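Lecture 7, part B: from sequences to assemblies.

Below are the input chains for today's worked example.
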Amino acid sequence: MATIADVADYTGLSRATVSRVINDYPHVSKDKRRLVHEAMKELGYFPNTSARNLRNRRTDLVAVLIPRLTNPFFTLILDGIEKVAEENGFQLIICQTKSSKKKELEFLNLLQTKQVDGVIFTSIENDWEQIQPYTDHGPIILCNEYHHDATVPMVRLNQVQGSYLGTKHLIERGHQRLAYCMGSTSGLSNDRRKGFFQAVNEAGLEVKAEWIFHDTYTMEDGVKTFNKILSLTERPTAIFTGGDEVAAAMVKEAKRNGLDVPGDIAILGFDDQPIASMIEPELTTIYQPGAEIGSRAMTIFIDCLKGKRERVRQSVMELPLSLVIRKST
Amino acid sequence: MATIADVADYTGLSRATVSRVINDYPHVSKDKRRLVHEAMKELGYFPNTSARNLRNRRTDLVAVLIPRLTNPFFTLILDGIEKVAEENGFQLIICQTKSSKKKELEFLNLLQTKQVDGVIFTSIENDWEQIQPYTDHGPIILCNEYHHDATVPMVRLNQVQGSYLGTKHLIERGHQRLAYCMGSTSGLSNDRRKGFFQAVNEAGLEVKAEWIFHDTYTMEDGVKTFNKILSLTERPTAIFTGGDEVAAAMVKEAKRNGLDVPGDIAILGFDDQPIASMIEPELTTIYQPGAEIGSRAMTIFIDCLKGKRERVRQSVMELPLSLVIRKST
DNA sequence: ATGAAAGCGCTAACAC
DNA sequence: GTGTTAGCGCTTTCAT
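Predicted structure of the full complex, as structure tokens:
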């Protein structure tokens, strides 16, 4: 494998000059520049990235922590991150945490060992105290996540506003008994609950404890939860869900039980995934600009790396959610 | 930032011994081993990956070429690759080609510059002659792709068999006039067409040229193509599609036009994505074990890297597709 | 069991 | 405009 020294020898120039050509520096004569290029081609030379990284103390690599690759919302974020990364010469390393605290921490080793320049979290499992020490080693950005005491830039969606909007919509449609299905108990979920109850309280409605459901993530969860709701003596007439998959599964289960959506029961999705407009009736849902927060987060990341922006200081960029009214409510 | 030399100085040992401890080599006394571990913790030392990579001539990094992150089938493959990668201490670099020949070639620079140990293609845009030279620089695996003259390991799905199965099913349901929608004109598409016509010919059916549609990828394409089909004077009674999104959009458009699926027109999907079982009627489709081929490909990749397997020699592993009969046919 | 030292391939400060 | 050279941080012979 040819090295820079080989190119230098071949051309009779020094390694320094060859390096200057490689890196497109000024102060190299046209002649030598061409000479070097010819030699590189002739010898099949390519600069060794590990050597450059060692010397430059950068890798142009970013670790992106994501719970599951098969979750369309997160790949949307990833897509947004990738777009900006690509434009700026960065590569992305995929870190699938499977929502495990342990794995999340393990991936942070990539930062300590300088395998990556920094990390973008699209979801966060550990408490901030666990993460905080790692901020010494490079920029950390929270994307789609928020921690009250995190000392880093955060790009988030206004979940409070989003779920308020959706809930208010249900109430305006005349619903008085609302079921609420949530996923985990993360900060994100708390915000959604906040928005939900804000709308509920404003309207002076009551929400019974038995109308609140936890750990509802998947389509199967949706079916199970829907059946629980059906079996309730005092049954809600509208359901606020934490995702379109859950909502879609519920719509289907409702139809299977001979119920009309939204006539007998209204179902509100979240995310506005492709599936939302494919099912019958089309899902009313809350659109989250996933690609957008991804791009923003990556842009901020780059600014931090370049020192254009302080990286160990809290900052919050918040984007709004919007209600997409279709047929299920 | 602490280096190995700092740890050596701190403990009064040599860098060599510290290195041995880091890499868990034998022939280091218990005492010194503990001493070094304490020092590393004390100094906040972490081995520098770039330096190790340079020295070891490996990065434990694999580039995965994928057309679009937002395509669920490809993230399924990615998930399979990731699983095996994780088990073996490899990290994945995402390379989104957006189906561009140019980008695909650019990503191969990662191989030449030794930024990655090798490459897994989950789709391939260029001709094999373009790719072939890169095999000098590290293992290249084709996953979900096949090139007749490729001199590398390939893991593929038996598309011929899969589409034969689906087409035969349509014919058995009594359909005589079949429409065929394909995506690109890749090897993969050719195989599907082969299976389609195999079944068609066996049954002695005729397929008019106007029943064959190209470049049908997305939901919008599905809607457009379906309307073209509707406007045909001699209209097919069944449609073979290249993906569940397309099929789902067609089902929806059919219903919008007052047609019954499968009564008036049967629609066959491909992939068995979550959406297939969420729409009404549920999609009959062809299941492709995406995660499975991903895992297999990564396993083969590792064998190639370890020299357990020849890497510049054609080999083909083929997995079968299966028909999932639901309600749309 | 431990250490000395060469060298992986590259860049940049400094000299001319 | 070009060359010399000292590292970047690590691993691995080869001694002892």
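Note for the exam: Chain B touches chain A through 43 residues (CB under 8 Å). Keep this in mind when comparing with the next example.
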